[in-house]
Amino acid sequence: MGALDHIRICDFGGQLAGAGATKLLAAFGAEVIRVEDPTTQGRWDMMRVVGPYVDERRGVDLGGGFNNHNVNKLGVTINLRAPEGPALLEKLLAVCDVVTENFAAGVLDRLGFGYEALAAIKPDIIYVSNCGFGHTGPHRSFKTWGPVVQAVSGLTFNNGLPDEEPAGWGFSYMDHGAAGFMAIAILAALHHREVTGEGQWVDLASTTAGITMQRTAVLDWTVNGRPSRRPGQPNGNHADFDAMAPHNIYAALGDDRWVALACRDDDDWRALCDLVDDDDARAGRFSGLAGRLEHQDQLDEIIGRWVGGREAGAAASELVAAGVPASVVKSPRERIDEDPDLDAWGLFPSVDHPLMGEVRVEGVPLHFSETDWSIDKAAPLLGEDNDRIFRELLDLDGAELERLRSEGVV
Amino acid sequence: MSSLSGLRVLQLVDERTVDAGRILAELGAEVVVVEPAGGSPLRDEPPFVSDEPGPERSLRWWAGAAGARSIELDLEGDGLALFDALLDASDLVLEGRGHALDAVDAGWDARGRTRPSLIWVSITPFGRNSVRADDPATDLTLLAGGGPVWNCGYDDHSIPPMRGKGNQAYNIGAMYAVIGALTALAHRDRTGRGQLVDVNINAACNVTAEHVTYNWLVVQSVMSRQTGRHASSAPTAPVQVRCADGRYATTGVLPRSPAEFGRLRAWLDELGLLDRLPEAVFLDLAARRTETVEMVDVASDPEVAAILAAARDAMTLIASELPAYDFYVASQQHGFPCGAVVSPDEAFEDPQFAARGFVHEVDHPELERPYRAPGVAYVFSASPCPAPERAPLLDEHRDELLGSMLTREDERWIRRQR
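Output (structure tokens, whole complex):
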């Protein structure tokens, strides 16, 4: 029994920011039905035609990212611009618990399916919209993708060296953030419906999610009047608000090999000192946090010397064995294929895709003692489940479905 | 009524649980933080109000524990009996110590399993049964080992990879912890049964690295860090521009449709910049096309390559002529999704967010003045999120909590008598 196998979701959410949310719910048993446009105008989920690809073939069913974000889901196609498209969607909505989308603000409303229309079809429906700025405020019409969300919420600024261009995030971190908060919104609204019988609209703005992930920096401004944009900030890999020292990423032997290391307190520092066994490190000025912060550059030089003479994995192992938090900055191979226990966790299950063959995908970083997740089905081909959903769930007969198909509705 | 009104959460508070507790409190749960004798170590974390350390002055504590109530309990001493009473009155536990808590008989094994309706969420660096369960870890080492740090940094690889600030490994863990908690709650709503939810922060970071992870999974391609843009298997053109005020902006994805190229050319014209960019002729060319311009054709079609290079140059030129924020707003008004790189506090002050009700005023009698704080990412139309009260003082709610427990015990006793 899945924790969510009583839930059916009509999912217009695409890319990672939308599809990533419902993927998690599908892994716990929710029936997630991706609704896409059947036309060849490229209005299906754009991730369908973005690599990686397993071989030289290209096409709407071959995008590796789409497969990753849509495992366990079903897929139907409905052309909402065709005369009978909206009526077909209404039939589907009438048997769904949740509607999700991450279009730009107002798009679903303009298609005729804003919250009021949805609630007229199914009064207790839960509608969760997910866009950059939400549906209110002067910037509601602004469009975003991950890097823009990260830029305007402060996350990009706060990753980099002082007085340099921001390094920012080398991936759409806030697509994950938006997906996570979207999943939370859906689940919270489901609980509310369970208790009260009431549906609702949850309007999620991913830019605000980004700000909530840096609350302490904001309070340093509102309470202390100290802005993040000031000399010496952001301070690279040194600790936020000088909470720890040493706290940095050091070069190890070899090409582009790095070890991250942090001393949480004086005990960690003493353990590190014993390991490094360097007379400079034992100098009294480093014995307390204040001294270590004041002389952080010299401190980094001493530790850099020690790490620099070692292979990254060996250095990190020695540090951890001594009780000092440390890790290699792991490459994809190291963290995915060579991790000591992610295999046992089952974090990267394989699915059998009808066209791509066996492909590994991302699983869920949770385990439940009673109703654990499972991922066992590849992402749907475009319109793969039209027969199953329209005939079995919505009771269309074969001739009717054939007609809709020939008229370009599905 | 809020989404989680009436849900009672007991949090053995530390750096791994605190952000999950905050998210649950914002959704209306009654969150109680159990602090060790002397208070949570989070109270010692900087920054402090006016830079003066003190147990009630940590802004990290204020940020994470807002909306919670506090009770001080020595679980390794005589606090266990009271802890049991609190557990009996709770629906959900958040803890970050895993087996270490079991070792003092305060964990899932001794106290969770025996309460069939209790949801027990354990948030640990590597999962409860990891071979590394006892290894020390911090936000930095988790982000380094879990993927995010590998993806971030500069084109110049003699500079180390970069860890973004804000305790993002803990934020990622918290997000998954809440997803786990509420999924387990959905099951409990149906069956009355609770369970253990094992949250693994390392695993969570490992599935929070977007394309870098699935490119490895699908084709074993390695993406490497680049300045201010997506990590890539081969270098890509910069997208971050230094604007006229010295601040930066990200120029986003390039135009594809003929109409977009036409708008970009018109924007150059509007700013009097057409003369500065002879390559703008390629924008004209693109505007007259009947088909979209696809990035995948760059290598095979010189015209596409010239068009996209001209678009990139046009966007860069415009950005360099305007202050970053003005460029951001103007880009959006012209239909191009660009963004200004602002600091967290600058982001917070953007009028957009106050207009959405994101800015809360929090009363703080001990501070003798209210302060402003970020609210929540979502607006629930039927079950609004409460504005959390200021973080609790140490042991502030002991009497209230003990009083309410007694009442519940009394109620149970009365029910039994009936």
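The two ends of chain A are 32 Å apart (CA to CA).
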